[in-house]
Amino acid sequence: MLRAQGRTRRLPIAFSTLGCPAWGWKRVLGEADRLGYAGIELRGLEGEMDLTKRPEFVGGKLKESRSDLEALGLRITDLGSSARMHEKDEGKRAAELDEGRRFIDLAHALGVPYVRMFGDNIPPGEPREEAMKRVIDGFREMAAHAKAAGVVVLIESHGDFTHSPDLEEVLIGVGSDAFALLWDAHHTFVAGRETPAETYRRLGPFVRHTHLKDSRPEGDGRRYVLTGEGDVPVKEQVKVLASSGYKGFYCFEWEKKWHPEIEEPEVAFPHYVKIMSQYLAGVGVTAL
Fold it and tell me: Which terminal residue of the chain has fewer beta carbons within 10 Å of its beta carbon, N or C?
């Protein structure tokens, strides 16, 4: 049995397991506890992105995994699925919707409040209205399944859905209290070209979870860098969230799985705790 290292209250700071793709379940929990994180976003374990296939979350092992979390006083903030609602091909779409339902069912079994999914793409050459209708219809189906399970589906600001008007159209179009927003504040700033205040003014009422990270220009693209070392206004993003009464987690999405050249989690995770603790103290956010 894992045991907590003496902390009874932690700041609402979380990390995504996308940042530690080689770690197993026990190490994820142990490092979260040791470093002072309060939450964990599950986005794959040991290279397996489909969490419903992991032995920790099947049969009797699932109850043991819940006990591991409770023993350390940690929370799973959300499950990060790969389900994409833009798919037009019937076979591919059925597979995406099936993954979404399986993740919702797992979230229910684990007592996790949210499942992240993607609108993802507006396919080139297809009328925008058709693609948007398909995305909205898919999320309506997912939200209906989630509502029955006591779970909320989150669309992430990602891919072709990084502009506030597009996200607002989907959120209002679905129109369900089982559907809300995961604000990846990096993407709305870098790809959407919106300030944190602009994004939150339009989408704030829908925000339930966050992805925070920093980057800077490099060559023709950008490179993810340690928090505070790039040009993404992470501190301002935190200020906007806190001043608006946001009560969720400030989650570090370090994309190590997709960008193996960036710093190891052993470097990035403690650095984020240090910097984010300073940012949160500066805006009056207290421990859970």
Answer: N
